[in-house]
Amino acid sequence: MSDLTRKEVIIILATAQNARLAGVDLSGLDLRGLNFAGADLIRANLSGANLANAYMRHAQLEEADLRNAVLDGANLKEANLKGSQIAGASLNTTNLADANLSGVQLDAVQRSQARGLTS
Prior knowledge:
Distance between the termini: 34 Å
Oligomer: single chain
């Protein structure tokens, strides 16, 4: 069960530069198209969340749970995903250029036309 609603997340993102959402449960939420640029999402639970077309440049997603999340068309350029769990995630047309993917298992993810992946 998510700790916040979509509306509450929108308010936090609108009122705080580099929003702090570390460790927050956002699982299953519809977060399509939101601007998470520079947000602190370290160890956040985003499993099953819909983050399609979200702007997440420079977001801190270290050790975040992104299992089964939809990230189609999202911009994760220069984001830190070190140690994140992304099994079952959809990364179709996602921009991962210069993202830190250390320790991230990219098998078992959908990634058609994803940018910035070397494997």
